[in-house]
Amino acid sequence: MTELPQDHNQAEKPDTDQMIAALCNDLKPVDKFIHPLHMAIGLSAGVLFYVGCVSLIMGCRKDLAEKFVQPMFLFEIGFVLLIGFCSMLAACWLRYPDGKQQRLIQSVPVALICAFFIWVVLRFKRESYAWVTESEWWRYCFTEAFLVGFLPALAVVLVLRRSATIAPVRMMTMAMVAITALGWVGLRSTCGMDYAAQVFVVQNLPFVLAGGVAAMLAKRLFKW
Amino acid sequence: MTQKEDWTRLAGLAQGGDKAAYGQLLREIAPYIRSVALNNLNNSEGAEDLVQEVLISVHKALPSYSPERPFMPWLMAIFNFRRTDWLRQYYSRKDHQKVSADVLDWSVRGPVTNPTHAGELKDIERALDTLPPLQRKLFTMMRVEGFTAQEIALQTGMSVTAVKVAVHRTTQKLKERLSS
After folding, report:
1. Smallest Cα–Cα separation from A109: which of A69, A79, A144?
2. Burial classification of residue A15, based on how many CB atoms lie within 10 Å of its CB (0-12 exposed, 13-18 middle, 19 or more buried)
3. Phi and psi at residue A218, to the nearest 5°
4. CA B28 vs CA A22, A138, A171: distances in Å
5. CA distances, B152 to each of A160, B124, B125 (Å)
C-alpha cells in the first residue's frame, strides 16, 4: 500500500462529532425508495402505454393482424419485451448503492442482448442484401423512432434521478436499452417494413445515438 | 444481537425519523469507517475527510436503504464510491499544486531534504567529501549549481576541455564509489 502524503492545503473542516450532531438535527422521516421490481413494472407499463398511444395516433401498419399470427414476428416482439423489462429492472436496482452487487439481475439483460444479436446476424445472413433494392429503406420510420423514444427516455431519466447510484453510466445504459427495446416494439407495430437492416439498424439508431449521449452525461445527471 | 444486526435496526429506526437511533448509528459507524479508511489510505487527514464524506453520503442515501437487506454491503458500497471520488480529487489537487520551476526561490542554499531519499543523499555527500578539493569544486559547480563549462573555465582559469574532462572523471569516480 502506498502512503499518501498529508495534504495541508485543505480548507478547515468541521469536527466529525459536530457533523454527526448536525446530520442528526437535519434528520426527517424519509420516503423509502420503491422496490425495484415494482418500479420496473410501473415504468415498463408506463412506457408501453405511451408507445401504444403514439402508435395508435401515428397509425398501425395495415398487416398488423397478419403479423400477430407469424411466429417469427411474435418471437422477436416477445424477446425484445423481455430485454426491455430486464434492462429496466437492472436500471431500477442500480439506483441503490448496493444494487451493483446484484450481478445476476444485471447479467440477464446482457445475456439476452447477446442472444438477440446472434438472432439479428442470422436474419441478416438469411435475407442477404434484399433490403438494398427497397428505396429509402434507410430513412423509413427514422423520425417515428424519435417520437416513440424521446419522451419516455426523458421521463425515465427524471424518475431515476432520485437515486443513490454508484454506477451512473451503467444505470443510464440499462435505462436506455429498456427504452430502446420498448420503443422498438411500438415501431414494429407502426412501420410496415421488416427487413433486418431496417428493423435492427435504422429503427434502433436514434435510440442508440441518444443513449450514447445520455450515458456520457450520466455522471452529471445522477450526481449525489 | 450482533453489531451488524444492531446497525440494520438503527438504520431502520433512523428512516422513521428517530434522531437518537440515527445519532447512535453514525457515532458507531464513524470509527469503523475511519479504521477502514486508514487501512486504505494510510493518511490520517484524508481518512478523516473520507469519514465525513461517507457520513454525509449515508445521510443523503438513507431513503435508499432497505432494512430487509444487510446494512454492511450498503455502507461499504457508499464507502468505496466515496473513496474513489476522494482519491480522484486528491490526485487532481496534487496536479494543480504543481509549481513552475521559474517560481522557485533558487537563492535558498539550504541542504536538500527529502525524507524518503535521505540515505541516498547522505551517501552522495559522503562520496563528494572524499574527492580532492578542486575536483569537488568543479563537480559541484557544474552538476549541482548548474554553471556551464565555459563559465567555470572563466572563473577558474582552466581551459573548457580541462573542465569537461575533470567533471567527467569525477562523475565516473563517484559512480564507482556509490555502486561499490
Report:
1. A79
2. exposed
3. -55, -40
4. 16, 62, 31
5. 71, 22, 21
Are the beta carbons of A183 and A84 closer than 8 angstroms? no
Write down the number of H helices and E strands in chain A: 9, 0
CB-based contact (8 Å) between B12 and chain A?
no
**Is the model's pTM score more than 0.90?**
no
pLDDT digit string (tens) for A88-138? 999 999 999 998 888 899 999 999 999 998 988 888 888 776 666 665 665
Report CA-CA distances (Å) from A220 to A116, A149, A169, A203.
31, 21, 10, 28
Nearest residue in chain A measured CA to CA from B62: A30
Check B90 against A4: CB less than 8 A apart.
Answer: yes
Tell me the one-letter amino acid at B89. Answer: Q
∠ Cα B4 B10 B16 (to 5°): 150
Distance CA B166, CA B1 (A): 78
C-alpha grid cell, residue B122: 547522505
Which residues of B fall within a CB distance of 8 Å from A17?
Answer: 27
Interface residue of A24, A37, A162 to substitute, partner B, most B CBs within 10 Å: A24
Of A7, A21, A163, the CB nearest to B93: A7
For residue range A152-178, what is the model confidence (pLDDT) as tens digits? 888 999 999 889 999 999 999 999 999
Pick from A16, A27, A97: CB nearest B64 = A97
Q: Do A30 and B74 touch (CB under 8 A)?
A: no
Chain B contacts in chain A segment 154-173 (CB below 8 A):
163-164, 166
Residue A15 touches partner B, C-beta closer than 8 Å = no
Give the chain B residue whose CA is nearest to the CA of A8: B45
